[in-house]
Amino acid sequence: DTAVSQTPKYLVTQMGNDKSIKCEQNLGHDTMYWYKQDSKKFLKIMFSYNNKELIINETVPNRFSPKSPDKAHLNLHINSLELGDSAVYFCASSPDRGRPSGANVLTFGAGSRLTVL
Amino acid sequence: GIQVEQSPPDLILQEGANSTLRCNFSDSVNNLQWFHQNPWGQLINLFYIPSGTKQNGRLSATTVATERYSLLYISSSQTTDSGVYFCAVVYGNQGGKLIFGQGTELSVKP
């Protein structure tokens, strides 16, 4: 199946731990993203990579570090987890970095629910 | 930055009813997508519609870019339509940076 797949789907961990969420897309897209959905369901972009190059970096704590080994993978590593990091993290991909004149439809993964205790 | 406002915030329908969801945005946009987040949390892309009208089965969407709004129509609603509907836009030279509205939570009762 062509898709954006994330693992793990659920992650429960203690404060202070370090954890990673992996994302892979087999759609042949050049650009990948991480979005965070908070407890009020508000979705906000965190990072975007185009062909392994960081192109969007919102105001996110340094404890969050994305890594893109190739254009089909974008992993999210979080150090020293805090209670406020509890959220659902969505990976997404799109055909390109979004030229204003082009159609750049984002496809989302199923989400990874992180709970920090 | 751009503001994206959706209305209503909540909507309860009886199965078979029709509804219209609205998305207002405060600046010109290059990209507008409607998503459905189902009760299991999955975000499903419904329409890419920066302007014009599209239809897909019981759903249709219209964006009037010059007046900065988009509408999502749901006809003959079904219980499986329940969930949260999000409008999201890209503006200026923001690449693929989608700015989401706060969503409309729809509940369809049998």
Explain how this protein is built:
The complex is a heterodimer of chains A (117) and B (110). Chain A is mainly β and 117 residues long. Helices cover 0% and strands 54% of the residues of chain A. In chain A, the strands form two sheets. In chain A, strands 2, 4, 5, 6, 9, 10 and 11 form a seven-stranded mixed sheet that branches. Chain A has a four-stranded antiparallel sheet with strand order 1-3-8-7, with no helix packed on it. In chain A, a hairpin with a 2-residue loop joins strand 7 (64-70) and strand 8. Chain A is globular and about 40 Å long. In chain A, 32% of the residues are buried. The model of chain A has no long low-confidence stretch (mean pLDDT 90). Chain B is mainly β and 110 residues long. Chain B has no helices and eleven strands. In chain B, the strands form two sheets. In chain B, strands 2, 4, 5, 9, 10 and 11 form a six-stranded mixed sheet that branches. A five-stranded antiparallel sheet of chain B has the order 1-3-8-7-6, with no helix packed on it. Chain B is globular and about 45 Å long. The model of chain B has no long low-confidence stretch (mean pLDDT 94). At the A-B interface, strand 4, strand 5, strand 9 and strand 10 of A face strand 4, strand 5 and strand 9 of B.
